[in-house]
Amino acid sequence: MAQIDAVFKAYDIRGTVPDQLDEELCRAVGAAFARWAQQPQILVGRDMRESSVAFANQLAEGAQSQGVDVVDLGLCSTDLVFYASGRLDSPAAMITASHNPAGYNGIKLCLAGAKPVGEESGLRDIKELALGAMTVADRPGRMTHRDMLEEYVAHVHSMIDVSSLRPLKVVADTANGMGGLVVPVAFAGLPIELELMYGELDGTFPNHPADPIQTENQQDLIKRVLETGADVGLAFDGDADRVFLVDDQGEPMSGSTTTALVAKGMLAKNPGAKVLHNLICSKAVAEVIREEGGEPIRTRVGHSFIKGVMAETGAVFGGEHSGHYYFRDNYRADSGLIASMIILEQLSAVGQPLSELRRPLERYAASGEINTRVDDPLATIEQVAAAHAGASQDRLDGLTVDHGDWWFNLRPSNTEPLLRLNLEAPTQEECDRHVDEVLALVRGE
User: Fold this and answer.
1) N or C: which end of the chain has fewer CB atoms below 10 A?
2) Tens digit of pLDDT at every position of the chain (445 positions)
3) What homologous superfamily does CATH list for 365-442?
4) Distance in angstroms (rounded) separating the CA atoms of residues 299 and 286
């Protein structure tokens, strides 16, 4: 059964096709997920990758073998599947490898209400079930089909005041991913002039990788924004649940800046609300949330942690530096499309270009995430902690060290012997200097 140990990750199932992930494994996961979830039906959606049709069919057949009905959602973005899970109160599976290259595929799972399924919240159990023998139900489950795109778009529109939008020009690069399906429908009927780049669904990604966190994959969008004088550029990843923004001057925006901007919009409608940000977001995010009258809450990195804290605290919104934006009124699931609409709503309200609107939110210089391979990540973290013993430290997620005017987080990868460094300081010069200092410790220099 392919390489089951290799494909079960911290938050999803993902690997190369067919050597790590194949149809047999998808069928076993479908049966295991159905048995573990213990619900009368599950939803199945898929992206546009070449293997996704067969994988979705096999996962569905596995679930049906356990007597569970399957609702086939067809081609979907991941945020559409999460919405459907919340709206229909059913567990769901999405066949996608998100931003990974064409040779990959995977499975994202959630429980009813879009509740996340990760390594600590079910994936390990599902893996064990998939490895074992399972009896076949006396009556196989039924298969039905349902298209929920129009319903999802109506839900996205309900998150803003559509009547407040003014005419704006938007260029959206969907990178031949699922944004090519959902984005045109979401913008239809709005006073927005939309230009769609690479909107053809093509799982070979012929134009560039569907991984917008890498700014080299935003270069075509940046060029087009400048050529057309667009107000904003939107770069979606392969399964269209994440988005990165480019302003009217062709400058990319970090996930931290977008989190701060969306937080402003959400707090304007929900005064005094709690807003989550993960611990590698810029310090400016928490500062902006406080200035707007909200209560910032710092979380670990990763959707399962953010959704859990959102459920515990009732937070209205949560953002990650990686481009995931979560909304309480979207079943606490993330949606790049909703985040985009909220920013367009703000641009309409203030009448300022995005290049000006972002400026007060960008207060520090950041390193970006720097990965270093080490022999013993946990031992290395302890050595770095000892070297910074005089600074404020916490272990919410890896090691965070705060020197007041600069800070860094060093956390281990879930899947590789890597340490991930994120550092922020008042100026780029100071940022670069402190990065060199910390990396020297990490590398034992």
Assistant:
1) C
2) 668 999 999 889 999 999 999 999 999 999 999 999 999 999 999 999 999 999 999 999 999 999 999 999 999 999 999 999 999 999 999 999 999 999 999 999 999 999 999 888 999 999 999 999 889 999 999 999 999 999 999 999 999 999 999 999 999 999 999 999 999 999 999 999 999 999 999 999 999 999 999 999 999 999 999 999 999 999 999 999 999 999 999 999 999 999 999 999 999 999 999 999 999 999 999 999 999 999 999 999 988 889 999 999 999 999 999 999 999 999 999 999 999 999 999 999 998 999 999 999 999 999 999 999 999 999 999 999 999 999 999 999 999 999 999 999 999 987 678 999 999 999 999 999 999 999 999 998 7
3) Alpha-D-phosphohexomutase, C-terminal domain (3.30.310.50)
4) 12
> Domain boundaries in the chain?
4-146, 169-246, 255-353, 365-442
Fold match flag (169-246 vs 255-353): yes
Which tokens hold the place of 420?
Answer: 């991930």
Which one of the listed residues 90, 98, 254, 340 is annotated catalytic? 98
The pairing of beta strand 41-46 with beta strand 92-95: parallel
> What does the alpha-carbon distance between residue 172 and residue 67 come to, in Å, rounded to a whole number?
42
In CATH, what number does 255-353 get?
A: 3.40.120.10
For 289-303, letters b (16+ CB in 10 Å) and e give beebebebbbbbbbb
Nearest to 159, CA basis, from 343, 430, 395: 343
Q: What's domain 169-246's superfamily in CATH?
A: Alpha-D-Glucose-1,6-Bisphosphate, subunit A, domain 3 (3.40.120.10)
Report the candidate in 187, 271, 166 with the shortest Cα–Cα distance to residue 234.
Answer: 187
3-state SS of 81-99? HHHHHHHHCCCEEEECCCC
Strand ranges (E), 90-167: 92-95, 104-111, 115-116, 143-145
The CATH fold assigned to 4-146 is Alpha-D-Glucose-1,6-Bisphosphate; Chain A, domain 3 (3.40.120)
| Cross-strand bridge partners of residue 192 | 168
Contact 27, 54 (CB under 8 A): no
| Rounded distance between C-alpha atoms, residue 6 and residue 29, angstroms | 14
